[in-house]
Amino acid sequence: MITSRRTRGALGCALVLATVGACSKSSPTATPPPSSPHHSSSSNSQGPATSSPSQGPATSSPSRGPATEFHPPGDISDSTVYVDHVVPGSKVHVKVPEGWANSSHGGTTTYTDSFNSISIQVVKSSKPSTVASATKIAVPRLRKTTTKFSPGTVTTVQRTGGRAVLITYFVDSAQDPVTGKVVRDAVERYLFWHNGQEAILTLTGPKTADNVDPWRVVSDSVHWQ
Predict the structure, then answer these.
(1) How far apart are CA 33 and CA 193, in angstroms?
(2) Exposed end of the chain (fewer CB within 10 Å): N or C?
(3) Cα(149)–Cα(171) distance, rounded to whole angstroms?
(4) Which residues 6+ apart lie within 8 Å of 110 measured at CB?
(5) What is the b/e burial string over 93-111, where b = at least 16 CB atoms within 10 angstroms of the residue's CB?
(6) Residue 120 to residue 171: CA distance in whole angstroms
(7) What is the pLDDT of residue 30?
(8) Are 191 and 134 in contact, with CB atoms under 8 Å apart?
(9) What percentage of residues in the chain have a pLDDT greater than 90?
(10) Does 52 score more than 50 pLDDT?
(11) Residue 121 has pLDDT above 90, yes or no
């Protein structure tokens, strides 16, 4: 009987220990309590703050659109080929870039391409212009007939075809019919004289363009033949 009781006691203790062990092993896998409403709200409020797609439209800068005014390059290529043209109704020759469009109006022939233009007119004149006469007569006339005229200089220059009075100034171009934009132009106006005739050569291009060499080619080419 003693052995039987001890055996039963030992078995009882083993059973108790097994039950306790099972309980202690199962506790880590117990389902955690559900999140409190406050915790859930806090988590949700942080979601959009880190979501780029949801905040993109709200934080992007509004479109400013294109600039209302700009100064295009307007440089004439160094590879440009120049061809000789004769001013209609005269014996005055001038070189212009090949392929430029040309038109005549009121005795003035104009060659244009992109932002640049070359105009030449031949008129009767009993004597050549001087710096003084150009300053007194030509400059005031230009001020009245051009848009936002800004004077430059009036000087005498030597070109291959002879001496000329050079008037430099700045004006606003005509408004672009498509974009509505206006370009600030730099103008060189040469007054050549020969045997009772004056050839008025006007070279126009954007103020920011570097057309020193092309304009020299054109102005050097003016001559009577």
Answers:
(1) 104
(2) N
(3) 5
(4) 102, 103, 104, 117, 118, 119
(5) bbbbbeebeeeeeeeebbb
(6) 18
(7) 47
(8) yes
(9) 62
(10) no
(11) yes
**In degrees, to the nearest 5, what angle opens at C-alpha 82 toward C-alphas 80 and 86?**
155
Nearest to 180 by CA among 73, 64, 66, 63: 66
Biggest alpha carbon distance in the chain? 157
State mean pLDDT over 50-57. Answer: 44
Q: Which amino acid is at 51?
A: S
Give the Cα separation of 160 and 219 in Å (integer): 8
Single-letter amino acid, residue 122: V
CA 210 – CA 225 distance, rounded (Å): 31
Q: Show the tokens assigned to 22.
A: 């099972």
Q: Is the dihedral of CA 176, 182, 187, 189 positive or negative?
A: positive
Name the residue with tokens 């001087």.
130
Residues 6+ apart with CB under 8 A from 4: none
Residue 9 identity (one-letter amino acid): G
